Amino acid sequence: MHDRNHLSNVGVTNEVSVISNGIIDIPMLQLLDENGKETNKKQTPNLSKEKAVKIANAMQYTRLLDERMVGAQRQGRISFYLACTGEEASIVGSAAALEPQDMVMSQYREQGVLAYRGYTTEQFMNQMFSNKDDPNKGRQMPIHYGDKKLNFMTISSPLGTQIPQAAGYAYGQKMAGLPAITICYFGEGAASEGDFHAGVNMAAVLKCPVIFFCRNNGYAISTPAEEQFAGDGIASRGIGYGVKTIRVDGNDSLAIYAATKEARAIALEENCPVLIEAMTYRLAAHSTSDDPSGYRSKEEEEKWRMKDPVTRYNNWLKDKGWFDQVATDKLLETARADILAAVKKAEKIDICPLPDIISDVYDEAPWHLKEQLAELQEHVEKYPEAYPKTAGRTR
Amino acid sequence: MAQMNLLQAINSALITAMTDDEKVMVFGEDVGHFGGVFRATSNLQEKFGKARCFNTPLTEQGIIGFANGLAAQGSVPVAEIQFSDYIFPAFDQIVNETAKWRYRSGGQFSCGTLTIRTPYGGGIAGGHYHSQSPEAFFAHIPGMKVVIPRNPKQAKGLLLASIADDNPVLFMEPKRLYRASVGEVPDNSYHLPLGKADIVKEGKDITLLAWGAQVEIIEKAAQMAEKDGVSCEVIDLQSILPWDVETITQSVFKTGRLLINHEAPLTGGFASEIAASVQERCFLYLEAPIKRVCGLDTPYPLAHEKEYMPDHLKTYEAIKRTINY
């Protein structure tokens, strides 16, 4: 036991002086201007052509997937979809700065990470059509992906719950001596949840190697950021919790990549959390159940469309001489055909057989679940026409 | 074997678990150097280091959220919530995260290694916020196990089994017995089965069922009834979810009568679930309606604590009414 003085670092003033919001200036890192021109060549990340093109391809694929799946939802083929249009640089740029062994705990708008890590069109579709080939066994709404092989934790709908979980996951990685960190994605709206404050504070105090990646995209469904918080965004909170923090232009893939790469190195080497606030804009509706025309103007959307992250990045690739129009067209054409084929295939695959309704509640089904299943089996067998998806596959 | 109180038995179980598996980590508010407000985690930090036994900031939702992530990673967290009255900020993490993690991921990921320890129950002049028995809330969550020991020996064996079990367990400790209940506890590691009730005393006229600190209450009532010539079978349910329907129904087939006692309020308490299930299975064997002797449907009072509690006298009267129905 040692004596302590928690006032030892507190200075004294004799003036009545109340500190104002915004006293600390937190600028936003930008390495590509809006036309895709490098702003500081010394800081431009050293990307191979292969990796640079891989980032572009994952962004383009994600945009296309979003367009097609919003369409599929409009046709009534899936119940729900959530696009990340406008935020591709934040998602894919950060994913590219990670290592495959890093755990991803996402909110729900981060399909670009999966695209970058090589999730196939077929895998996306199996989840969205909740068929038996979804490793999550069709138990959650479309876009709640999860894939153990890709270190992508299964998504849950409640907002912000992944934030303290990411702290715990990262603590476990540290204790196991693994050369791995956890990245935790969330929006500026979710950062109002108690779990944000709990999780970031715990990660700071318990020294967890985790990146808290906030996509500040301006809206939580219809609620604009200025009705979400009065402080200086989310970055200011990181500083308040004693967490290393960086604010980044979320539409600049290179800045996001550079910031995330640096954050990863700090998290791993210094065993501590790092907070990234990516300033971006949700060009998409919140989800297919949402219509943004009720809460924002076309002009505002148009202004942000001009800052399109995919165009900006492609302009940079063109300057480097790495942009191949023919290859890009072919990629998108193939992806379009693949998505169409995968939709047609996935919607025909059966859902899991009836007994899976009780599997994975526990490691082994206890008596009451077995009893309830037996009753259900008998019932479905009696009225097979009322339960066409599992009739014939009840045992 | 050594004489231990319930707290020492918990401490012994934690030492055993942490010695046997270096992935076991114990944390919560004040559990570090101080050893917890009840001293259940005494000396753990000294023995196993600050990385494996540590204080957390004062945030129950944070503690359980952190524990969920740690469990999903493959570590074996034993998280403490200082009083079960304060578990509710973590309710979302438990209901929507802990309990559904395995199911929602199709078994790819789980929180199976997680054990949440929390003291519960009244009789310590704790008023509303240091006395509640919230087990029924957690019995309503598919994916959770809920376990409550009645004495030091059961506490060590059930806690070690809970830590070893590959499902998340809420382990509720009857705080009024922490120092009051003393008994022989094996020094070695041993597991008592989860999901199994324990027949404390056999009898033939009526089955008395309780858990945690109320087991000694029904035992006391049974002794009074025996003097009137009523033979009571006393059962400790031990696991609230999943619960041992088989042992209870076999007992009721024999006695034809069932009385359930719990501290939590009557309405929506776990006795209701037991009563419904037992009448489905034992309808034609029942000689009297199933009787519940429970807390009142009020917030847990302070000045009226004694009046509120489903004590041995209320239980004794209910036994007589059931026998004479």
Describe this structure in words.
The complex is a heterodimer of chains A (395) and B (325). Chain A starts with 27 loop residues before the first strand and ends in a 13-residue tail after the last helix. By secondary structure, chain A is of the alpha/beta class. Chain A is built from 12 helices and 8 strands. Chain A has a 6-stranded parallel sheet with strand order 1-7-8-4-3-2, sandwiched between helices. In chain A, strands 5-6 form a two-stranded antiparallel ribbon. The longest helix of chain A has 26 residues, at 49-74. Chain A has helices at residues 49-74, 88-96, 111-117, 121-128, 162-175, 194-205, 235-240, 253-270, 298-305, 309-320, 325-346, 367-382; strands at residues 28-29, 103-105, 182-187, 210-216, 219-220, 223-224, 244-249, 274-279. The model of chain A has no long low-confidence stretch (mean pLDDT 96). Chain A has 2 domains: 44-346, Rossmann fold (3-Layer(aba) Sandwich), CATH 3.40.50; 354-386. Chain B is of the alpha/beta class and 325 residues long. Chain B has 2 domains: 2-185, Thiamin diphosphate (ThDP)-binding fold, Pyr/PP domains (Rossmann fold), CATH 3.40.50; 198-323, Rossmann fold (3-Layer(aba) Sandwich). Chain B is 36% helix and 20% strand. Chain B is built from 12 helices and 14 strands. Chain B has a 7-stranded mixed sheet, with helices on both faces. In chain B, strands 9-11-10-13-14 form a 5-stranded mixed sheet, sandwiched between helices. A two-stranded antiparallel sheet of chain B has the order 1-8. Chain B is globular and about 60 Å long. Chains A and B meet through helix 5 and helix 6 of A and helix 3, helix 4 and helix 5 of B.
